[in-house]
Prior knowledge:
Elements: H1 6-15, H2 17-22, H3 31-48
Amino acid sequence: MFDADLALALAAYNAGPAAVLRNGRAVPPYGETQRYVPRVLELYRREAGH
């Protein structure tokens, strides 16, 4: 649905896919989601060794 875009997939998990689509396939401007996506991406990168 989000063409393997991990940030959008995380945003959809947190805020719902409809919110991502309503915002033009972008991370919605919700405070919780804006904090959640970069935090999870950072943890993922750290664990993956990137």
